[in-house]
Every structure is written in C-alpha cells, then in structure tokens.
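Molecular record:
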Amino acid sequence: MINSKIMHGNGGENMKIKSFITAAILGATLALGSITANATTKDTVKPSIKGVTTKTVYIGQTFQPLKGVSAYDKVDGNLSNKIKVTGKYNLKKAGTYTLVYSVKDKAKNTRVIKRKLIVKQLNVTLKQKSQYFKAKGGFGTLTIAPAKTKLKIAQLASKKWMKTTSGKWVKDGFIGNYVYLNKQTTLYNKVNGKKSSTLNGGIYHVSKTTENGWIHVSVGWIKSGEFVDSYIDYGNKAKQQEIIKTVNKERAKEGRKALKENPMLTKIAIIKSMDMAKNHYFSHYSPVYGSFDTILRQANYKYYYAGENIATGQRTAADFMNSWMNSSGHRANILNANFKEIGVGVVENIPNAQMPTYGTQEFGSRY
C-alpha cells in the first residue's frame, strides 16, 4: 500500500513526501559542507622574519636590534611589533654575541632565528701623554704612553677608561701622579699592613699604585683618596672655556697678554669649587687644606705670582665674568700683567651643596 500511495495517490501526498525528503537531504548536505569547511581552515604555517643577518659594529657605536627587521604572517598580517629579542651583548667590549629573534602568531605558530653580532676593536690616537695601568682607575702603575700613541682598544669603560688589546688600561691625559684627600686619612706602613698614623687632607705626590687599590705617597701607603687627574671630569668644560676666552678679551682691551690654560691649575680650580660645594663654605681658606697657595705648592706648581677668584650662584659663564669684572679686587686679578697662566673650575648641582653653582679662577706664573 505504501508503494501504491506513492505511485497512485494524489499529487498532494506525493508532493508532501517529496518535499520532506528533499528538505532532509538538503539539510544533511549543508551540515556536511559546514564540517568540511571547518576542517580545512586550521593555521599551521609559521610567520616569517626578515632582516635578521650578521651585524658588525665597532666599539662605542650604537646598535638597534630591531632596526630593519620585520615579521609577517599569511593569516595575521604584519607582526613586526610582536618580535622579541633575547641575548646579551656589550658594545664596549670586542667579541661575537648571539641574539635570538622570535615571533608568534595567533595560532601560536612560532618562528625563531639566531643572529650574530660582531663587536670589533676600536683604533684610538692619544691626544696627551698618558700612563698605562694594570687596572682601570689608575691602579697598578706601568709605563708612559706619549701623546699621539696609536692604540687598539678592546673595551670601553666608565669615566673614559679604555682597555687595549694587550690588556693595559689607559685614559687620555691621565697620569695619576697626584692624589687629593678631601679629609683626614689613615696611613699604613705597608700594603695590608698596620696603621701607622693619619694623613691630613690635601694633595700628595704618588710614587706608585697597586692593582688592588693601594696608593704609595712619600710618607707611606693609603687606601683612599681620588687622583687629581680625575677631577677634570667634574668641571663644566664649556663654561670654563668660555670664561677663559672672555678673560683674554678683557685683557686684550687693556693691552695685556693672553693667559694660557694650565691643566694642573684647571684641576686645582675644580677641586676648590668642589671643596666649597661639599664642605659648605665660601672663602679662600679651605677647612681641608688651608690657603689656596698651599695646594699649589702641594701640586708642585712652582710659582712666583699666584692669585685666586671665587664665586657662587651664577648660572652662566657671562654671569661669573660680570660678577668678577664688577669687583675691583677680582678685576685686578683678571687684568694682572704678572700672571701668565690660568685654570678655571665650574661645578654644578653637587648633592647637598648650599648653592647650585661654584666657580674658581686660579692664576699663576711659574719659575
């Protein structure tokens, strides 16, 4: 009867059955199609990284790990901002370093590439006579390097110290033959020996140093103090040079000869300015070393004329000069025909200082 209904029944019944079957078949087809589509869209392709090639730089140059490097994924597009770089390198030391670049897409497919960074030695020509040392900072005295000596540098360190490829440490212009004590210091009879007495503040001549930080002066060994040559880094060089230039302009107006800058006077001037800032005083007499002529003698500056100008609170080189030129005593020092050399020290923003700036002019004429 079923067959009979299908074959001989009215068209309406046949159409209903046919419609139901057709709908069921279409529904199954759509569902199957949906399952098939989900199976074929899974992302298994790793993103790509471009621009990661071996890089060579010289000591002291800059290096930007992500400069010129990009990443792309066929599904997620540009992933350059997702790149991660790991690995350590030192642009102040020659050597070959390995960096690892990685990037991950949304499907967690990860691309990893290694990169070589080669840091090469630096060639330097010394501008001034300098001392070689076993350790940076002026310790372990070796030999002298004349001005214009050409060096191959394997490492740069803080405060302008350089290590040569032969393992010696040097800083252009640093000799380390004088040390400044800004307070009373313990004196020892030998390296790692017993305390023998104390040494007052001031400048002392250095005969030798050890690699582990001991300094020998004329009366024994000390373990503290700072080399006079190091003070050159504490002054504002631009303002100091502008002051010297203005001094010589003022001298020229009065028919006076120009003063030449003396490196030792410059360091002593910086020491004086630092001394005033740290010890909270404003005077030509220091609580550490006494009168200014005392420190000149301690530094073996053999003078027959000497003078000193000090100032505090001025902001610019012009401010310092205006203050000095508008004072008869300071003006007299600046224009004194007996002086032949000058050193200027300007220090700024010293921690716990009472004033923002301190300036000193040291004048002299040597035998």
About this structure: The domain at 48-120 is CATH 2.60.40.10 (Immunoglobulin-like). The helical segments are 2-8, 11-40, 237-253, 263-279, 292-298, 317-325, 328-335. The chain has three domains: 48-120, 156-230, 237-366. The longest helix spans residues 11-40.
